[in-house]
Amino acid sequence: MRKELLVDATPPETRVALREDDRTVEVFHERRAELSLVGNVYLGRVHRVLPGMQAAFVAIGYERDAFLYVEDALPHPVDPEGNGDDAAARGESDPPRIDDLVKEGQVLLVQVTKDPIAGKGPRVTANVSLPGRTLVYLPEVREIGVSRRITDEAERERLRRILEGFAGDGGFIARTAAEGAPESDLAADRDYLTALAARIARRAGNGGAPVLVHRELELPLRVFRDLVTSDFDAIRVDDEGAAARLRELASAVAPALSGRIEMYAESEPLFDRYGVEAEIERALQSRVPLPSGGSCVIHQTEALVAIDVNTGRFTGRASLEETVFATNLEAVPEIGRQIRLRDLGGLLVVDFIDMQDPAHRREVFDRFERELARDRARTRVLQISDFGLIEITRQRTRNNLERILTRSCPDCGGSGRVKTDRTAALDLRRALLKPPVLFAPGDVVRVRAPGSLVDFLREEGEILEELRTSLRIVPELVSDDTLPAGSFEILAG
Fold it and tell me: What CATH superfamily is the domain 41-214?
């Protein structure tokens, strides 16, 4: 499989796309005004304990208090996949209650595990874990583990022996990238992570809760650390500063990959050149066409994500059963890709077209299970039901693509979604800067847009100032609420 990473690092938004066999399978966004909190470590203060919910609110300096569940306040056994019942794993028949573990006003070190989603504050854990290139370090644990994605028993045993030599420094988990890595690489990762933990401990010792004591790496570095393995063909970056920082990180943690970091300098924008921009636009639509003429329809609700498979124009040749079976098989890889591309989390229900032949049901399920195994997020899949339904739970740590790029549509009472003003403003920026530039220095360029977008552009100011500086044009904003929300028109003055 051909793998490559594309980094579009032009402010005020950084985007990273993962491509497999020339198709986009994951996209990550980071905006200067909306940075992710996941991985950040805070010295927090318990604001309120809720025995009835077995949870506590912890002030971390964010606008909303963070949420600490009782299971996240307890020491976790090492489990590379994060599966299993923690109380059962500890052999506890009557686990402690939240009010036995934390008290109001108590100061404790916590790490964000989920970004604020749908009006809720971030979720935190008292079990701080620090990821490196090949290892995850758990300062408060004295256990070791090996990623379940490493299946070769001889390799697992080799890694266990190495980690046992590190055990005096804390707990360690060998990540997938540790497979085949020399002991010297793992030792370098250990030294880096233990030094980082010591810095965090010193900052926390200075007190002053609530306060941030460790910020996660910026998006391109984080994705490189967590995703890029030795089988990647290229990492293409369109910003020299970001490329330099990636090369610096690569030289420290994965020297063999340094030569695969390429500076993209063509006039056509990177995401346009490789079709990522079009993939993002399609991922905001509910209907996904299949090559045969069938389709998948994806709808997100508060409770779950429903994915429906339809034959559409595909009528097949032999029989209805064969037509249905072929459509379901064709939908399997596309559904797997869309789940990753849209970052769909929580409960997902896939409604495959009903098949009468048990062998066909088994084949569809087995292929779907193999497809989901390529996903980094933790998933749990139930067997296909008599009605052709497959239920999935998928780990959710951040807002998905739809929630990042769109908002509830004010014109239809919230039954649909439109792009946010920030997303539309960034679209406008890209449209004006995209070569060939159609305006000469000094030209007045009139932009008609809904009033909320005009207000956003004026209040933020950064995008307008960039256009004035880069293109030396005079942007003139015209408020027009007859235009659909999230849209705009560009006219010569």
Answer: Nucleic acid-binding proteins (2.40.50.140)
